[in-house]
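REQUEST
  id: r-88c1
  op: predict_structure
  target: Polysaccharide deacetylase family protein
  payload:
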Amino acid sequence: MADHGKFIISVDLELMWGVRDKMNIKEYGENVKGVHNALPRLLETFRGHKIRATFAAVGLLVFETKEELLKSMPDTLPGYANENLSPYNGYFDLVGRNTKEDPYHFGSHLIKQILRYPEQEVGTHTFSHYYCLEKGQTIEAFKADILQAQKVAQDKFGLHLTSLVFPRNQFNNDYLEVCKELGIICFRGNEHSWIYAARNMEEESLFRRALKLADTYINLSGNNCYNDQYLKSKFPVDIPASRFLRPYSPLLKSLESLRLKRIKSGMSYAAKKNLTYHLWWHPHNFGINQDENFSFLEKVLAHYDDLNNQYNFQSYTMSALAKGILTNEH
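RESPONSE
  id: r-88c1
  status: 200
  body:
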């Protein structure tokens, strides 16, 4: 692969399936409903800046009716010790009959919108928003989950999924052999800082969460950029995160300039040093305060345009970057 900086954006498309265990529809529903407006706007924004992104989608959202969804369960279901983590333990009772009735859980049309932009990639965020570090999960259930995600993507859209984003960034080394076996060539790993080390929900602490929030505005963990040598060192290819694009907060609006500076600084470092910078977020983060969030994103992408002109900083999907790395390696 040519010696230049690489810019990766991954977007975790979950609708309500990714927040069901911590927030109900009444509390977070407006954010999720906003995805249906935010996603088309995001796709046009990316095209305007020639950005190639990876949209990692939860498999449960690709259906159009509840009947279709209920007929598409994996062969082995996760047996989490905390049953509330599984959508298979009564959560389907909250799901409406179809897309028109329930905008919180059905998103087949969102995948179709993404596919109208061939420069973008659809990857997997697992079928059920599978938690790879929670007590009770097994390698057999994980494999069944990924197989089902691949099956519904192929059956409904003719898609061959090759990139993976682990839900909640619960990265599990033991599952990489399963990914390799099933044709997954890359995944989003975690930042190389103890602040972001993968942990389950029980082990997570308020202290680490506070540090992650502070790291949004001041440099606590470094630029989190990665050289080609590291990317070549694993298969499937690990393309670690650099920065989570936190949504606009009216309470923290006085810190917006610091938030922008933190991201731009990392991007500049990657461009000048021929490294990879990986930015990520969820569409529901843009579900409310959309004008403020898109205004911020435009500033980030304008900086990308400048770096592209000055240093040949280039945008890739996750799979395109992995294929380039693997082609050079072999």
